[in-house]
Amino acid sequence: MSRTPRPEISPLTAPFWDAARSHQLVVQRCDGCGTLRHYPQLRCVRCLGADYSWVSSSGRGVVFSYTVTHQAFDAGWADRVPYAVATIELEEGVRMVSDLPASDTDRVEIGAPVEVFFDDVDGELTLPRFRLTAKE
Questions:
Q1: Is 98 exposed, middle or buried (0-12, 13-18, 19+ CB in 10 A)?
Q2: Residue 33: pLDDT band by 50, 70, 90 thresholds?
Q3: Domains in the chain, ordered, with CATH?
């Protein structure tokens, strides 16, 4: 059985992954101008400030864009095709990329509401992922 690729955890990204293991979604916030960002970066894209904090996200958002993949990019994903990969725009305005559960592949559409859930891969890695929710 092939394993899917694992994210590389660095000192910069470790707080994100630590929070995920606790089933909490966090993003960086610039201490200088308050800009939220994801993926983790050393400097703010708005003011170039180097000081930041980690803040909780609601974990709710909408599908900003998506694609349905019919050919695995890696052998570890071969048993999952077809699968949907979506750019999620969180309520806070930050965007994240996530694969969606298999049950959402045929139902995904731009603007669809989503919520985070946590996939405990093993004792060391928990992936924040997103799934479709009912429209309000």
A1: buried
A2: very high
A3: 14-132 (2.40.50.840)
**Would you mind telling me the total number of residues written for the chain in this entry?**
136
Cβ-proximal residues to 3 (8 Å cutoff; 6+ apart), any chain: 76
Other C-beta atoms within 10 Å of 36: how many? Answer: 16
CA 135 to each of CA 42, 51, 109, 112: distance values in angstroms, whole numbers, following the listed order:
36, 38, 12, 7
For residue 121, name the pLDDT band (cuts at 50, 70, 90): very high
Is there a contact between 38 and 96 (Cβ–Cβ < 8 Å)?
yes
Round to whole Å and give the CA distance between 64 and 23: 23
The identity of residue 132, as a single letter, is L
Read off the DSSP letter of residue 76: G
pTM, two decimals, is: 0.93
CA–CA separation, 80 and 89 (whole Å): 24
d(CA 92, CA 69): 28
Whether the Cβ atoms of residue 116 and residue 94 lie closer than 8 Å to each other:
no
